[in-house]
Structure formats: C-alpha cells, structure tokens
Write a structure and sequence with these properties.
Blueprint: H1 2-37, H2 44-67, H3 76-84, H4 86-121, H5 132-136, H6 138-163, H7 171-174
Helix pairs in contact: 1-2, 2-6, 3-4, 4-6
C-alpha cells in the first residue's frame, strides 16, 4: 500500500498541486472580470489571491519541468562530447546535477529563513488579510520538490555511470520524452 502511494505521488504530486493553483488562479481571474465589468464592484482580495496562486503555480511547475527534464538547459557541448566519450558525458551530467542540487538545497534553506521571518513579523496581505507566510511557503515547497526531482536524476545518473560507463548514449536517453 505504501509503495503504491509513493509511486502515485511520485508520478502526480506536482500535477495535483499545480492544477489546484491554476484552477484557483483561473477561477479568481474570471470572478474578478465578472465583478468588474458586470457588477462594477471588483473585490481587492480576488486579484491578490489570484496573483499568489500564480506564484505558487510557477514554483510547483518548476518541479514538474525538472521531473521531465523540460527545464532550460544548454546541452550542445555535452551531447557532442557524448558521441566521442560517453563516460565523460555521464560524469559531466552527474556533476551538473550535484551542483544544481547544492544550489537548490541552499535556496531551500534561505527560503525557510524568509518564511520564518514572515511568521515572526505577522505581516498580513493588504487586500485579503491572510498571513503573508502562506504566500511565501510556496517557495520552499517548490524548492523541496525541485530538490527531490534533481536528487532522483542524480541517483539515476550515478547508477547509469556504474552500470553502463562506456555504452553509447542514445539521443532519447539524454532527454526524457
């Protein structure tokens, strides 16, 4: 049961969370437009919550992009090296994942400090009067999910180096479809 739950969440957690954020954003924007142009009385809180939902969507979608390796990357040189020296390409990819993971962990620690400061100050958003740390929690959550996905890719790269150090790398292996 736990294995099934882990596998299901591993496959869909970003999709579920990003979908909720996007549905909230879309619904509130539509609500805002109707209230503005039909009733001529737009509430300030709906625009603010929509903006925060969009921010959460961006942070959660970053993890989704990493999961499927659809993030921005410049792999021309690494792919060229891989045609001649597949082990070197695998080592470069592993090094890139390790540096990326270190960066995400560092950013995660900084974002946690930012959330702690928001909790301590007790700042409220101007329109909806919700605590601002609810808005800021999206950043460490997104960074945690991104770190988890980069860790998965790092472990796969390490296992690939051990199992197939000199095997040619197919173009489909360098980018997940």
């Amino acid at each position: 049961m736990l294995k099934w739950l882990y596998k299901h969440l591993d496959e869909h957690i970003e999709t579920y969370l990003a979908t909720v954020a996007l549905v909230i954003f879309t619904s509130l924007v539509i609500f805002q437009v109707v209230m503005r142009y039909v009733f001529n009385s737009p509430p300030a809180w709906s625009e603010e919550i929509a903006r925060y939902s969009l921010v959460w969507f961006v942070y959660l979608s970053g993890s989704y992009a990493i999961k499927y390796q659809r993030h921005v990357k410049f792999s021309v040189v690494v792919n060229f090296i891989g045609k001649k020296l597949p082990l070197l390409q695998r080592l470069i990819s592993l090094a890139i994942f390790l540096v990326w993971l270190a960066f995400l962990i560092y950013m995660f620690a900084l974002s946690n400090e930012m959330v702690k400061r928001q909790v301590m100050t007790g700042q409220l958003s101007p329109g909806s009067q919700i605590p601002m740390y609810f808005v800021y929690i999206g950043l460490p959550l997104g960074l945690f999910l991104m770190s988890f996905r980069v860790l998965q890719h790092t472990l796969r790269a390490f296992v690939d180096i051990i199992r197939n150090p000199f095997a040619p790398i197919s173009p489909s292996q360098s980018e997940v479809d």
